[in-house]
Design goal:
InterPro entries: FAD/NAD-bd_sf, Flavin_monoamine_oxidase. With 468 residues, the chain is α+β, with helices and mostly antiparallel strands. Helix content is 33%, strand content 24%. It contains 15 helices and 20 strands.
């Protein structure tokens, strides 16, 4: 009995000490004056959404601090720069749609746009990388009008923020089942499975995910509306944003504790761990522009409602990199397909594609898998694939040189199907503004064009909350 009482007392004392320590982190007297930051907005995450929000808020005379865990802005926009040759290789975000919000953002950040033809990404040659079989006579499926008809039938799939509470059950079918039920043409069915940046096994991916990925903007880009940075450097807008707003951006930093008020006047307080030590951030509103999975939000003191919603969220695994000295033919997109799988869908895990860049000798690749994979494993698989392709194309055998790498996980966040049926997207939408917190990442949309547009739509509500 004595031992039990002692353990209970020790446990209670430890919990009390932890609580006191947490409270002390928000005591302004414990910080030097330069380590206390008071702003209108705290933005967590410096990808497409966070950077767009920061620039937009600054241009409307609002103050912000942006906290980014990595050493750069840009998120899934990743560009390799070779200082020796001047080559720039985009191996994350490739294109945008030529619409005003894209034009204005690039202009604002002193970055020029140029039209891009999808043919510039290479003439495809098809192989089953897993079974090491060439498919010289394979013809990829192409989108037909019946696919567009289906998109128009479900207009809310472009932006899932408007997904109805009662989600049509057909949209939660695996894509092949959905295609068969709706008598979709072979070309459209195959093309739906072949969006290059759809993570996971395409044969088990829901129709909702396929249509959300291959939305009207994606189709418009494919039909001639695509643009990219004129210097083949889509990251330039983020480099320029960092240069302009450097004093208000904390790189290599993360939030380790948070207090978020229940009313507008109480705002938020955040403790950021930075290379220069801890900083206390006081803001009127908090903008989460990072993937809000539980691993990323554990320091934000989530309440029961937030836990019940965000706890359902997960992403998939996707990786990419840049390589040279492959010996492979220039201008060819070496594309993975399944020799004996339905609709020739590629099997997992494996390299999705090895594509040419604008600079001779430099290629980029993407890797798709259903389980977390290390950089060494990804690059080993890419090397093995490249060396096998060398044998298939009668080129000089060479040792590939891996130049850059990016883990894009968690990619394409979503809840389980049963939670989609249970109105998860409506519940997530209802979290906007809860405890002075807003969510602007790619939860409801894919692609930077849509992320900027959805962020732009939500910003007036965020600003209004800060002024309440």
């Amino acid at each position: 009995m004595l031992a039990t009482s002692f353990l209970s007392l020790a446990s209670a004392t430890g919990a009390m000490a932890a609580a006191i320590h947490t409270r002390n982190q928000f005591d302004a007297s414990a910080y030097a004056a330069d380590d206390i930051i008071e702003r209108d907005f705290a933005i967590i995450g410096g990808g497409a959404a966070g950077t767009y929000a920061a620039v937009s808020l600054a241009d409307q005379n609002h103050t912000f601090t942006l906290v980014e865990i990595s050493d750069r802005l840009g998120g899934h926009t990743r560009t390799f720069h070779d200082p020796a040759t001047g080559a720039s290789v985009d191996f994350g975000v490739q294109i945008h749609l030529d619409v005003p919000i894209v034009q204005d953002f690039f202009t604002r950040l002193n970055s020029s746009l140029a039209a891009v033809e999808l043919s510039s990404f290479g003439t495809p040659k098809y192989y089953d990388f897993t079974k090491q079989v060439a498919l010289p006579n394979h013809t990829a499926g192409t989108m037909q009008s019946d696919y567009v008809t289906l998109l128009n039938k479900y207009p809310y799939v472009d932006d899932l923020v408007n997904l109805p509470d009662s989600v049509p059950s057909d949209l939660l079918l695996a894509w092949p089942e959905f295609a068969q039920k709706h008598n979709l043409s072979q070309g459209s069915t195959e093309a739906g499975l072949a969006w290059p940046a759809t993570p996971g096994d395409p044969l088990s991916t829901t129709a909702l995910a396929i249509l959300n990925d291959g939305n009207h903007i994606e189709l418009a880009e494919d039909e001639g509306g695509a643009v990219h940075n004129a210097n083949n450097d889509n990251s330039q807008i983020y480099t320029n944003a960092l240069a302009e707003f450097q004093p208000h951006i904390l790189l290599n930093s993360s939030i380790v504790a948070a207090q978020r008020g229940l009313n507008r006047s109480s705002g938020v307080q955040l403790v950021a761990s930075t290379p220069e030590g801890k900083k206390l951030i006081k803001a009127k509103q908090l903008i989460l522009a990072m993937p809000p999975v539980l691993d990323n939000t554990k320091s934000f003191n989530l309440d029961t409602t937030e836990n019940s919603i965000l706890g359902k969220l997960s992403g998939k695994y996707y990786y990419g990199g840049v390589v040279n000295n492959t010996g492979l033919e220039e201008g060819i997109a070496y594309t993975n397909v399944g020799v004996d799988r339905p609709y020739n869908a590629a099997s997992l895990p494996g390299v999705v594609e090895i594509a040419p860049s604008a600079y001779s000798g430099y290629q980029f690749y993407w890797y798709n898998t259903e389980v977390a994979t290390t950089q060494e494993e990804v690059q080993a698989a890419a090397k093995s694939t490249i060396q096998w392709l060398q044998t298939q194309n009668n080129v000089t055998t060479s040792e590939p040189n891996f130049l850059d790498y990016q883990d894009f996980s968690p990619f394409h966040l979503s809840p389980p199907n049963e939670d989609v049926e249970d109105g998860w997207y409506t519940k997530m939408k209802g979290l906007q503004g809860h405890r002075n917190t807003w969510y602007i990442s790619s939860l409801f949309v894919v692609g930077s064009t849509q992320v900027w547009n959805s962020t732009n739509i939500l910003l007036p509500d965020i600003i209004s909350a800060a002024q309440a």
